[in-house]
Design goal:
single chain, Rossmann fold, 7-stranded mixed β-sheet, 3-stranded mixed β-sheet, 32% helix, 5-formyltetrahydrofolate cyclo-ligase, EC 6.3.3.2, magnesium, 5-formyltetrahydrofolate cyclo-ligase activity
């Protein structure tokens, strides 16, 4: 990370975290319902039989109802497991996940570890994000796990970030290693970014 962008990214992440903490219980519940509806529709649109998704933390948009639906629908769900080398292992969703706090400070299920290449078998990737701009550039939380994962994939399926509506912005700070995504799912809509989608179709 360059010296110029590091403070800018830290300040933006701090602001976004504070906004999320200030949401009311009713606002969170309404957001979760909308996000679940749009993630289900996206999964059906893609025809995904296997997806990767993360377990949301308390302040994040709630992905857990979607995970429960996918599992009940017979869709294979892979969860990311953080590693000390900056890569991600994966584990498969079960009926009763035991959770621990991962290296990034977020919830992770306990299960049989699959290596980093397991992500190559999914049809849809759902990623966390602090903010995403209208070109599809994603601002993560500073650990770089997803940038490394997405940047290493030869054939990447559709990648969608999950956000609150106000976190889709005109521009986010970007560096050379930052990875664009195909779209975002918010409580009110699903937005696809044509630039990365066109590039992915050419791979």
């Amino acid at each position: 990370m360059t010296g110029d962008l590091a403070p800018q990214k830290r300040a933006l992440r701090a602001e976004l975290r504070e906004r999320r903490r200030n949401l009311t219980r009713d606002e969170r519940a309404a957001a979760a319902a909308g996000i679940t509806e749009h993630l289900i529709a996206l999964t059906r649109q893609v025809g995904a039989r296997s997806v990767s998704c993360y377990l949301s933390a308390t302040d994040e948009p709630d992905t857990r109802p979607f995970v429960n639906w996918a599992r009940d629908a017979g869709i294979r769900v892979l969860f990311p497991i953080t590693r000390t080398d900056g890569l991600l292992d994966w584990t498969t969703a079960t009926d009763d996940e035991e959770e621990v706090t991962g290296l990034a400070g977020t919830p992770e299920p306990v299960g049989e570890l699959l290596g980093p290449i397991a992500i190559n078998d999914v049809d849809l990737i759902v990623v966390p994000a602090a903010s995403v701009d209208r070109s599809g550039m994603r601002l993560g939380w500073g650990r770089g796990y997803y940038d490394k994962t997405l940047g290493s994939m030869e054939r990447c399926p559709p990648v969608y970030g999950v956000l609150f509506d106000s976190e889709l912005v005109d521009e986010v700070p970007r560096e050379r290693h930052d990875q664009a995504i195909d779209g975002v799912v918010t409580p009110t809509r699903t937005v696809e970014f044509s630039t990365r989608s066109a590039r992915r179709r050419r791979i």
